[in-house]
Each structure stands twice: as structure tokens, then as C-alpha cells.
Amino acid sequence: MKIRKATRRDISRLVELWWELQVQYFSYDLPYYRNKSKAACFRLCQKRLEKYFQDPNVILLVAQQGSAVIGFVIGEVLPRSNYHRVETYGDVGPLGVAAGWRRQRIGTRLMQALEKEFRRRQVRLAQLYVDRRNHPALGFYRRRGFDERMVHLIKWL
Ligand SMILES: CC(C)(COP(=O)(O)OP(=O)(O)OC[C@H]1O[C@@H](n2cnc3c(N)ncnc32)[C@H](O)[C@@H]1OP(=O)(O)O)[C@@H](O)C(=O)NCCC(=O)NCCS
To answer: pLDDT tens, 63-81?
Structure first.
């Protein structure tokens, strides 16, 4: 298994992997994609990914086993946050490993590579959002040294 930078040729596979995650997230009641057809969701994701490939601040990494892409992570270098004394910070997400490949350190390898790339770009703080009910992801990020600091409050209007 190797971790490498994604290329435009990966887009269709990335859309599939992303969709796998969205379907899982529906159970956390994110309403946006659930109300659209699958084809419309695929088009939106493809558009978003194409934009990412034009943005030098976006880091897109994939895990490849043989010829198959089985995981990915997207990171973005953003300007100074309001809350932390840093010039830039690294926003993490989404991150996903295909269902049959989990618990084999692939997520760990993806995050290690992303953190390395952040550090190479002088980024010293990484942050991310994760649903409180997503226990596997919370377990994973805690194990990677992420600490709960801010509380993200939402209210549907
Ligand atoms: C979160 C995710 C990326 C983890 O990837 P992974 O390749 O399975 O993780 P790893 O094998 O590298 O796990 C490393 C450690 O994280 C923790 N961990 C991973 N999965 C876990 C789970 N289901 N429950 C609790 N802890 C977990 C464990 O400590 C694990 O070490 P161990 O296997 O020796 O116990 C994967 O579960 C996934 O794709 N989930 C769906 C998408 C998602 O929720 N993404 C995050 C939100 S954007």
C-alpha cells in the first residue's frame, strides 16, 4: 500500500469514496445531499474536486493498494484562525477509508502523510470537525493526538 498525491485521474474514484462517506453521514442527519439525486451529488462532488486541484492550498492524498484507490484525505492550509496564535492552520477533512479496508492503519498512514505535508508548509496547528456521534472517527483522531477544545454549536432554523 502506498500513499501518494491524488491526480485528476483519481476524481471518479474519489467521488465514489466520498459518496460512501456521505451515505454514512446521513445517519448523523446532515440534510444537504440526502435531498438530492445521487447523480446530482456526484456532479457536485466532481465539481468541488476539480476546484481543489486548482487550489495550491489544498492537499489531496490517496491510499493505493495495487491499482485500487482505497482511501483519501483532503487537507487545506488556511490563514490565521481567530482562536489560536498561528499564522496559518491546517484544516483536515474529509478523510475516508473504504469499508473493507478499515482498521489496517490506512487512515493512520494518510494522516501521517498529511501532517508531514502540513509541517513542510510551516503549518503547526491542525484542526477538524467531527460529528460527536461518529465514535470510530473520534476514537481514531484521539489516538492520533487530537484533543477536544472548541465546542461547535448548531441549531436548525
Ligand atoms: C476514521 C477512519 C478514517 C479510520 O481509518 P482506519 O484506517 O480504519 O484507521 P486505523 O486502522 O489507522 O486506526 C488507527 C487507530 O485509530 C483508532 N480507531 C480506528 N477505528 C476505530 C473505531 N472504529 N473505533 C475506535 N477506535 C478506532 C484505533 O485506536 C486504531 O488503532 P487499533 O486498530 O490498533 O486499535 C475510518 O474508520 C473511516 O473511513 N470512517 C468513515 C469516514 C469517517 O468517519 N471519516 C472521519 C470523519 S471526516
So the answer is: 999 999 999 999 999 998 7
